[in-house]
Amino acid sequence: ESLLNIRYGEGRCRALLHLLFPEMNPTEVFHIDHLHPRNHFSKKYLEKLDYIANSPEKLSFYENPEYWDTIPNLHLLNHSQNISKQDTSLKQWLSQPSNNYSPSMLLVSDENIEFSRFPEFYNERRNALKQRLLSRVFLTTKIDSSPSTMDTDEEILTD
């Protein structure tokens, strides 16, 4: 669960995104991109949106980098995709004919790509990424850390 809280710029971010999306061509250089552009989460931008400015609770959610600057809002794009997307809204970018992404490829439903539905987008994608992570990584419920009595690799020193 905590892996999904990794922020943009952390060293583990790129590795986790590659683990979650292994279909990315390994010979290509990918940029880490905010699906909903990071400048859309500035106070100045948010205060222009009535549905957020009039709700302190929503404003707090949208401004919080723990939501917009973490794995659920990040994706790997190749250089040309990243340049073409820039600060374009997710909905507008996905509707461009030159774009080969769909909401389902990003693990979200069509109705949750609107910026006004960012909380739903975040929760839906986070849950989908969590399931994908669990299915791709072998996790044990308990790791036995007690030393084995049959361990012959250790030297026993006697006086």
TrEMBL record:
<protein>
    <recommendedName>
        <fullName>HNH nuclease domain-containing protein</fullName>
    </recommendedName>
</protein>
